[in-house]
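Narrative of accomplishments. A recurring question from our advisory board has been how the design workflow behaves on a single, concrete structure rather than in aggregate. To address it, we present the structure tokens for one chain from the evaluation set, followed by the sequence designed for it. No filtering or post-editing was applied between the two.
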């Protein structure tokens, strides 16, 4: 899925931040005169961390920011920034995200032109990691003079995508920062980062909005069934909007229908139908479903799928806590290998048959 910036239309000129980010922005602006050389923005996925980070980067490069620290949007630096051509700005992220954005841009362009295009097939899948060559490429960038003696900004996300070699290479730059250089790292899970990287960054948490605030934002953006999708995405409003508008929506609803009535024949058919889908997403859907079963048995609370209360209640009465705990552990283990199974169909068959066996 493309980055969150492409999931939501953001007017940087009039409303650069989401309402739940204003307090964090004010906190960061209080450090404007002594800005840390490395800032780590962290929090749950799907709440707008990347858009916040990009606006911060633009504001640091802007020639005439306003009194609240927001970029003016009209100076030469802002013009270069929105075109990703600012001489003092670099964005580092996995090749996969770059390709997804390129495909999205191509799709939008072809739609406007009324033409159909197809992405060129490559023999090598784009990397999901940030690799060492991407970090080494920053060396020349950091060793040349900045444009108009201004600030140099490097935005890197998601930070947990750094592989071991890249993380170690980045660490050297963080240990000996170049003058007038600010690193902005974004992470969905700081527990996956090297402690040495964490220790060299000023950590700033971006928190989840309240349910009321998130629902108000979704409804203002005309998202149908906002309550359902917000719950399914654990309260993350941008993730909820992305899911509500994605092609996976129908696939998820069909999958939940199968989970509601487990049987062996259905399990095999589901594996056959979904073998070309994202296995990681499929396992995530099962994990949240199992969590709701466990939570309902323990507390009577359903977090992710409140619209399926009757189905979850009926299934919860057919399974014991110990079996559910084991199933959750197995699903967690499956998630760890979901990105590279030997056979997608066999992987899904095992997943669905294990789930079905819970209720036999």
């Amino acid at each position: 899925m493309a980055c969150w910036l492409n999931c939501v239309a953001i007017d940087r000129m009039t409303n650069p931040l989401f309402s739940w980010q204003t307090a964090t922005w004010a906190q960061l602006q209080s450090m404007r005169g002594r800005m840390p050389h490395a800032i780590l923005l962290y929090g749950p996925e799907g709440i707008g961390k990347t858009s916040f980070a990009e606006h911060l980067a633009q504001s640091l490069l802007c020639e005439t920011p306003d009194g609240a620290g927001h970029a003016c949007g009209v100076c030469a630096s802002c013009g270069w920034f929105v075109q990703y051509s600012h001489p003092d700005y670099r964005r580092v992220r996995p090749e996969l995200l770059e390709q997804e954005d390129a495909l999205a841009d191509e799709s939008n362009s072809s739609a406007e032109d009324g033409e159909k295009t197809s992405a060129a097939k490559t023999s090598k899948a784009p990397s999901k990691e940030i690799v060492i060559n991407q970090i080494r490429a920053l060396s020349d960038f950091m060793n040349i003079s900045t444009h108009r003696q201004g600030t140099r900004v490097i935005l890197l996300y998601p930070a947990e995508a750094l592989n071991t070699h890249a993380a170690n290479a980045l660490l050297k730059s963080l240990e000996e920062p170049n003058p007038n250089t600010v690193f902005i790292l974004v992470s969905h899970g700081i527990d996956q980062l090297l402690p040495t990287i964490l220790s060299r960054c000023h950590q700033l948490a971006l928190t989840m909005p309240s349910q009321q605030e998130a629902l108000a934002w979704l409804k203002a953006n005309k998202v149908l069934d906002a309550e359902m999708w917000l719950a399914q995405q654990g309260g993350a409003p941008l993730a909820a909007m992305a899911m509500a508008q994605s092609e996976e929506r129908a696939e998820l609803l069909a999958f939940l229908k199968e989970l509601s009535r487990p049987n062996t024949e259905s399990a095999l058919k589901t594996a056959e139908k979904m073998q070309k889908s994202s296995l990681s997403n499929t396992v995530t859907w099962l994990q949240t479903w199992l969590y709701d079963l466990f939570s309902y048995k323990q507390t009577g609370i359903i977090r992710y799928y409140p619209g399926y209360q009757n189905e979850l209640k009926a299934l919860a009465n057919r399974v014991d806590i110990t079996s559910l705990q084991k199933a959750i552990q197995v699903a967690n283990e499956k998630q760890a290998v979901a990105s590279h199974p030997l056979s997608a169909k066999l992987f899904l068959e095992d997943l669905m048959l294990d789930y079905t066996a819970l209720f036999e």
